[in-house]
Amino acid sequence: MKEHKWRYMTSFLQQTNIPQESKECLERCVDAIYELCGEARQCYSETIKYNENELAKIMLLDGCFILELFVRCHANVEVNEDGQPDPVRKSAWMITALQHDLGLLENQIPFFILVRLYEIVKPRATKNYSVASLALKFFDPLSRKPRPEEKDQLGVNLYQLIKHIL
């Protein structure tokens, strides 16, 4: 999975063919993760054993992987940038396993980390979806309930109240 995570992170951060833009995107994401590390630590009941650099690396890698996975599943992309079949997407059992793994409490990263990473990369992306709507679409096959509306009757964005994927 580590190889897939690195490949997905690279794909997520390279929304253009201009290397300088991809480098700047990576730098902005790294800066954002470091800014949010302290707040992220407070989201866990147990003490996080990783130092700031290790935690930032995990949050960046996992966050980008999750977001790229959501985007690929939403857009039904089944090939890599090189035109070869994506090993993650071509395997139904792997998607099911990822849906299960991402639903486990111990695998949660704070939702605000995902939102911040997506906000940085989103201007480079062609579609305009919220992280919450992408997550709901990814987990839709497991849900027995209708997908909630994004806004309530007063226009309040309910998806902004989300703390984690669960």
Task: Show the helix and strand layout.
Elements: H1 2-13, H2 19-41, H3 52-75, H4 92-102, H5 111-121, H6 131-139
InterPro entries: DUF247_pln (IPR004158)
Pfam family, one: DUF247
Molecular structure report:
InterPro entries: DUF247_pln (IPR004158). The protein is mainly alpha-helical and 166 residues long. It has one domain. The chain is 54% helix and 0% strand. Helix 1 crosses helix 3 (52-75), helix 2 packs antiparallel against helix 5 and helix 3 packs across helix 5. The longest helix has 24 residues, at 52-75. The model has no long low-confidence stretch (mean pLDDT 81).
Q: Identify low-pLDDT runs.
A: none
Alpha-beta content class: mainly alpha
| Percent of residues in β-strands | under 5%
Classify the helix fraction into a percent range: 40-55%
Averaged pLDDT: 81
Order of helices and strands: HHHHHH
N- and C-termini, Cα separation: 21 Å
The major beta sheet can be summarized as:
none
Number of strands: 0
Computed over alpha carbons, the radius of gyration is 16 Å
Give a quick rundown of the structure.
The protein is mainly alpha-helical and 166 residues long. The protein has six helices and no strands.
What tags apply to this protein structure?
166 residues; mainly alpha; 6 helices; 54% helix; globular; DUF247_pln
